Amino acid sequence: xxxxxxxQVAIITGASSGIGRASALQLAEAGFQVALGARNLDKLxxxxxxxxxxxxxxxxxxxxxxxxxxxxxxxxxxxxxxFGRIDLLLNNAGLAKGTTPLVEETxxxxxxxxxxxxxxxxxxxTREAVPHMIEGGNGHVINLGSIAGREAYAGGxxxxxxxxxxxxxxxxxxxxLLGKPVRITTVDxxxxxxxxxxxxxxxxxxxxxxxAGMTPLTAEDIADCVTWAAxxxxxxxxxxxxxxPLDQSGAGKVARR
Length: 257
Hints:
Layout (H helix, E strand, L loop, with lengths): L8 E5 L4 H12 L3 E6 L2 H15 L4 E4 L5 H15 L4 E4 L17 H28 L2 E6 L12 H20 L5 E8 L6 H6 L2 H7 L8 H12 L9 E4 L4 E3 L2 E2 L3
Parallel strand pairs: 1-2, 1-4, 2-3, 4-5, 5-6, 6-7
Antiparallel strand pairs: 8-9
């Protein structure tokens, strides 16, 4: 049995592409009113147009960099003012930069980008949104983690650390909100073909090689998981979803043809 979500409001960060875009579309089609946040306003407007065409409803959108607390506060306040409520937060904004071993890294700005976005940004969004959920008597935080938050690998030390942190924050939050009307979920994907590897490696050809000879997950596959968790009955909390392509058994363990 699915939860009837008509009228409920979902905030999606990193909604301009990839998993964020796919999740925004699927959540809107499931009945959520959606608020979209991302750094690229032009792409965000394109996603909003897709949602309006598919559902007839106008999403709320706002340019935001989740690393900046003032922008986060303004975004959440604007969503609450626009819709009058906040029921779901999908902390999707995140990235990986580089694969240089820790002791060989010369550009530590990559570390800052990953930690500030993947960890601090998630914390800031959660801090601002959850009180509105408690006040409204209904809420759900879904954090986009990774199997990198469960299994570290060479060349991914800081990215893995950020996703281990996401898992720790998710579990701590579940304990802290026990007795409150807020569900807490993490969705931890394996290899998903989006622009993730292009951002990480800085080159389309290198990114294509990551998925060569195997069938990766798609953004829509992960959006399916997000939407399924979000539409369970209110008394059902999906703690974690770990999802990998059939061709992957773990980090760096891939069957290629």
